[in-house]
TrEMBL record:
UniProt lineage: Eukaryota, Fungi, Fungi incertae sedis, Mucoromycota, Mucoromycotina
Domain Bromo as annotated: residue spans: 375-445
Polar residues bias (residue ranges): 8-28, 82-98
Gene Ontology cellular-component annotations: nucleus
InterPro entries in alphabetical order: Bromo_WD_repeat (IPR052060), Bromodomain (IPR001487), Bromodomain-like_sf (IPR036427), BRWD/PHIP_AD (IPR057451)
Record-given protein name: Bromodomain and WD repeat-containing protein 3
Length: 501
C-alpha cells in the first residue's frame, strides 16, 4: 500500500537549518463544534459546441471556499483530546472559515475559474517540481495555497471522489479526455499520464497509491492497478458478485478538483448502484440530482446521448453523460448527466448512492481509542491540530496535504473511511509531512515516526496494549519485534518514494 507526498525540496540542508519546527495550537477545544469540509457546488449551464467530444461531460462550477483558520498561540498547555470549539476560533482540520461567506452561485450563473500563475514553458514534469520549491509565502499567497475543500473533507460524501487506498473505481475515459482538455492545470501534468484507453469508455481499477503534489491547488497523482470484471454481464444484471481479475498493469492519473471540469472517476459501488438507473430511465421521466450535497434539483429527461463510444464489453452505449436533462428551474440551462448523478424523482439520492464500504464499529472504536491515547501524550502534541500556516509561512510550499490527529478522529466519527488502510494512510501522511518539514535530528521528525508506528501496530493488532513496553521479558521483545518490522517497512516505502510514479 503506497501513499506518497512527492514534493521536490532542493537546498534541504539550508531549509533544515532555517525553518522552525512545525507545531499545532494546544488551546482547549471541546465537542460542541461539528463542522465539515464538504465541497459545495452550483451547476453551470450546458454548453453546446461544434465538436462532438466537447459536448460530453457536465460543466459544473464549485464554490471555491477561501477558508482561513485562526490559530491561537501554540505555547499554551495541552488540553484533553477532543474536537475544538469553533466559537473560540481555534485551528483545526475542518473547513471552518473566519471570513464572511461568499454568496452561492445559482445554476444559471457562469463564472470564469481563476487562472493559475503563469508558468514558464517547460516540460510538465519540470514545472511540477518547481511548484514544490520551499519558500516563504505572503499572507495573500497562504490563502491561495490553503487546502481546498476537496481534501479538507471530513464527512462521508457522495460528491467529488477523494481516493483511498484499496478502492475499486470506475474510470470514464471520455470524461478523462475532456478533463485533460479543459483543465487549467494540464501544463503541470505529466504527458505520459494521459487517457488510458481511447476505445473503451469504461475502465475498472483498484487504487494502489497516491502522490499529493503542492499547489495551488493541491493535485493528485493517482496510481491504479487495472482490473477486468470477468463476469460483467451477470454483475450488471444483479445475478452475481463481481469477479475481479488483475490485468497486471498500473497507470497514473493526474487530477484535481477544478471548477467546470468533468468528474470522471467514480467509486465502483456508486457506479454499480446506478446501473438500474442507466437501464431504466426513459425520455420524459422526471428525475432529481444533487450537486455536491448543496440541494436537490428536479428536471426531466429530454433525450438520450447516442453519440458516445460503445461499451462493447457490456453491449451497451457509454453511460458517460448519457441523459440530457432539462431542469424545472427556468433559469437553469440543460445539462448532460451521468446515471450516477440522477435518481427517479422522489427517490432518496443518499440512500441510493452512499453505498461504499465502511469500517465496523469495533474498528472505529479501536482507532479512536488509539488516537485519544496518542493525543494525551506530550510527545505527540504537535500532531493533534493543524499547523498554523501563518506562523510557518513556508509549510504549504512543502506539504501539499496537511493532516492532523483531530482530522482523522473527525473522519472516523463521520464514517469517512472505507477501509482500515485508509485510516493508516492518513496517520502515515501526518508522519511523512512532519518528516518532510522538520530536520531529521528534531524531536518532531522522530516522534512522528514513533506515533505512526504505535498507531499501525495497535490498530492492526487489537490485542496490543495502549502503552509503551517497559522493562524486559517477553512483552518487550514482542513490541521490539513489531517496531523492527515497521522500520523495515518504512525503509521500503521511502525507497519506493524515490522512484517516480
Amino acid at each position: 500500500m503506497e501513499v506518497f507526498v512527492n514534493v521536490e525540496s532542493p537546498n534541504r540542508i539550508q531549509r533544515e537549518n532555517s525553518y522552525p519546527i512545525a507545531s499545532s495550537s494546544h488551546s482547549a477545544y471541546d465537542t460542541r463544534g461539528g463542522g465539515s469540509g464538504i465541497t459545495t457546488r452550483s451547476s453551470a449551464s450546458h454548453t453546446y459546441t461544434d465538436e462532438q467530444e466537447d459536448r460530453k461531460g457536465k460543466r459544473i462550477l464549485r464554490s471555491m471556499a477561501n477558508d482561513v483558520d485562526n490559530h491561537e498561540d501554540n505555547h499554551g498547555p495541552l488540553s484533553p483530546y477532543s474536537f475544538r470549539s469553533h466559537q473560540n476560533g481555534i485551528g483545526s482540520s475542518s473547513s471552518i472559515s473566519t471570513h464572511p461567506p461568499r454568496p452561492k452561485r445559482t445554476r444559471s450563473q457562469q463564472m470564469e475559474p481563476p487562472k493559475p500563475p503563469v508558468q514558464s514553458k517547460t516540460t510538465a514534469k519540470r514545472v511540477g517540481k518547481q511548484r514544490g520549491f520551499p519558500r516563504i509565502l505572503s499572507k495573500d499567497e497562504i490563502e491561495l495555497f490553503e487546502p481546498i475543500p476537496w481534501i479538507k473533507n471530513v464527512e462521508r460524501s457522495v460528491s467529488k471522489y477523494l481516493p483511498q487506498t484499496g478502492d475499486h473505481i470506475v474510470i470514464l475515459t471520455e470524461g478523462h479526455r475532456q478533463y485533460l482538455r479543459q483543465s487549467e492545470m494540464k501544463d503541470l501534468f505529466d504527458e505520459k499520464h494521459g487517457v488510458i484507453d481511447r476505445h473503451e469508455p469504461v475502465i475498472f481499477a483498484q487504487v494502489a497509491g497516491m502522490s499529493w503534489q503542492v499547489g495551488p491547488p493541491t493535485y493528485c497523482k493517482l496510481k491504479v492497478s487495472l482490473l477486468r470484471l470477468q463476469n460483467l454481464q451477470q454483475v450488471l444484471s444483479h445475478q452475481a458478485a463481481p469477479n475481479w481479475v488483475s490485468l497486471h498493469r498500473e497507470e497514473v492519473i493526474d487530477y484535481s478538483d477544478e471548477d467546470g471540469c468533468p468528474e470522471f472517476i467514480i467509486l465502483w459501488e456508486r457506479f454499480y448502484a446506478s446501473m438500474d438507473v442507466f437501464r431504466n430511465l426513459q425520455v420524459g421521466q422526471a428525475v432529481d440530482a444533487v450537486y455536491d450535497e448543496s440541494g436537490t434539483y428536479s428536471g426531466t429527461i429530454a433525450s438520450l446521448n447516442q453519440k458516445g463510444l460503445q461499451w462493447r464489453q457490456a453491449n451497451l452505449p457509454s453511460p458517460w453523460t448519457y441523459f440530457h436533462v432539462v431542469w424545472d428551474d427556468p433559469n437553469s440551462k440543460p445539462d448532460d448527466m451521468c446515471p450516477w448523478e440522477l435518481v427517479p424523482h422522489g427517490e432518496n439520492f443518499y440512500d441510493k448512492y452512499d453505498v461504499g464500504p465502511r469500517l465496523t464499529n469495533e474498528e472505529i472504536k479501536r482507532a479512536k481509542d488509539i488516537l485519544i491515547w496518542l493525543a494525551s501524550s506530550e510527545d505527540f502534541a504537535l500532531y493533534v491540530q493543524q499547523v498554523d500556516y501563518y506562523q510557518y509561512p513556508s509549510y504549504l510550499t512543502i506539504v501539499p496535504y496537511p493532516v492532523c490527529l483531530d482530522m482523522v478522529l473527525e473522519r472516523l466519527e463521520n464514517g469517512f473511511y472505507r477501509s482500515k488502510q485508509g485510516v493508516i494512510d492518513d496517520i502515515e501522511l501526518i508522519k511523512k509531512n512532519a518528516m518532510r518539514y522538520n530536520d531529521e535530528s528534531s524531536a518532531a521528525h522522530k516522534n512522528a515516526i514513533r506515533m505512526a508506528n504505535f498507531f499501525k501496530t495497535r490498530f492492526m493488532n487489537p490485542r496490543m496494549p495502549l502503552s509503551w513496553a517497559k522493562g524486559g521479558g517477553r512483552k518487550k521483545a514482542i513490541v521490539d519485534k513489531s517496531d523492527d518490522e515497521y522500520q523495515e517497512e518504512l525503509q521500503r516505502e521511502e525507497e519506493s518514494e524515490e522512484e517516480p510514479l
